[in-house]
Specification:
Blueprint lengths: L1 E6 L2 H17 L4 E5 L2 H4 L17 H4 L3 H18 L3 E5 L2 H14 L3 E5 L11 H6 L4 E4 L5 H6 L3 E4 L12 H10 L8 E5 L4 H21 L4 E5 L5 H7 L8 E3 L6 H14 L2 E5 L3 H7 L4 E5 L3 H10 L7 H5 L7 E3 L5 H13 L2 H13 L7 H11 L2
Length: 384
Amino acid sequence: MRVFIIAGEPSGDKLGGALMAGLKTLVPDVSFDGVGGPEMQAQGLASRFDMSELSIMGIMEVLPKYRHLKRRIAQTAQAVIDTAPDVMITIDSPDFSLRVARLVKASSTIRTVHYVAPTVWAWRPKRADHMAEVIDHVLALFPFEPPYMQAAGMDCDFVGHPVVSEPQPSLQDVAQFRVQYGMEQADPLLLVLPGSRKGEVSRLAPRLGAALAPVLAAHPGLRVVVPAAAPVAEMVIAAVADWPLVPKVLDPRGLDVETAARAKRVAFAAADAALAASGTVALELAAADTPMVSIYDMNWLSRRIVQRMMQIDTTNLINIVSDSRTVPEFIGAQCRSDLIAQGMLDLLQDPEPQRDAMRTTMDLLGRNGENPGLRAARAVLARL
């Protein structure tokens, strides 16, 4: 069996790695081609180009890279057509993935699967109809998504999210982490996560640093750790150098995939709270039972356009899946250091309602069930 698989950012790479592992379990002679990051490469993918070329978000951010991305779209689609795999699987990154799928469908009958349903329940509901023109089958992360995809004419299976099956660190792991970074066991620990894209780090890191000052004043014993994504690690190290308290930066460069992932999970489990850029990291924090304040902002024009399209009042996945509003969010014009600081101070005072919502979220996403990567692989094979 030959699979062409494409991911464009770290969260998609994680999904792709889990799916590939599932396919290898069910079809030992499976082979892979495509584009992906370290998680997918660890499963045997030789990426055709660096996945970071596709990790761009926001209308104004994409424009300078448009010609290059257009060439990559054409090159990737042609590679799929030339190699004629049994299935092409695209993972998230719809602006790239669905353009590739359109070119592939125009010239072939190759079956197309898209992993991660578009958030039509949040904004731009017509996306499902457009997607159905080029995608045969959708793998959904959330249990409420299949009806939206099926209504547009696509097969769709809820497969859960790989975060629910990731091993959680032991108390001994957490204790060793604190010793390694010179922390007393009783020191409160705050994680700060400024994002995995360059635009996110440049936009959010200064606001996060400014927000720390009043939080540190109220909690003078607070320790700060910043787990950096490999593509932006150098940028993160430079950005935090002038924060009120220079944090410990967890730099995954030079580590193998599993070691880096384990170190990140231990940091998440050791933390008392987190300040995090909005995204799938919310689920990783929920799996670690670490409450959070969620922030995000983008280019002014991108922000205005997205705001007009939004159909829900929250972007945080814990709030959405649990149907609660326990995670405080500071998005767009509200993404200000003074508001972020007050949100964190309030959270540190009473984190328990959010922890209840996080546990509900993990249960709804399939905790204690079959590994979602294996479920996704079964779903792909069942419909070929």
